[in-house]
Design a protein that fits this description.
Blueprint (H helix, E strand, L loop, with lengths): L1 H8 L5 E3 L7 H10 L3 E3 L19 E3 L4 E3 L5 E2 L18 E5 L2 H5 L4 H4 L7 E5 L2 H11 L2 H12 L19 H5 L1
Parallel strand pairs: 1-2
Antiparallel strand pairs: 3-4, 4-5, 6-7
Helix pairs in contact: 2-5
Length: 178
Amino acid sequence: MIDRVEAQFDIKPERLIGDTAYGTAPMLAWMVEEKHIEPHVPVWDKTERKNDSFSSNNFHWNEEAEEYLCPAGNALRSEWRAFKNERSHVTKDNTIIFRSRQTHCVACPMKAKCCPNTAIRKIARSVYEAARDVARRIAATPAYVRSRHERKGRNVVCPPQTHPEIGSPEITWHEWRD
């Protein structure tokens, strides 16, 4: 829809306010890198762990070295040795796997909290992580809080042809959503 409006009317939004469905990594990359639109959407993040172990948020990304640092200060890299033929390391899921060294993990006092069921720690980093970071930074701003409030405060009528399960045009988005 943004492409059609831009092509027909030569206008483009400065920000897009939406729900988590717009917070996927490819969608955020499209908004940030291609369209230069501020994403005022929650980032779809499945990295939080259900148990007490560290999530990937506990690891620090070092942009210059292109590696993660674990809470104990050890590196996780996409490759630990040089290859004759350069490799992209991008998986089918558009992620790059960063791994620690087994020698670091075996002796680490935080192993039980970091990788209790495996020999080493792995982190899958999206190739779109830079756009996800932009969305996370925007989410920490007062403008984001205001736009999220504005989105939830709208009392928009959804026509039944758009949402057949609603039933009648008098039912508002809030009533349908709840």
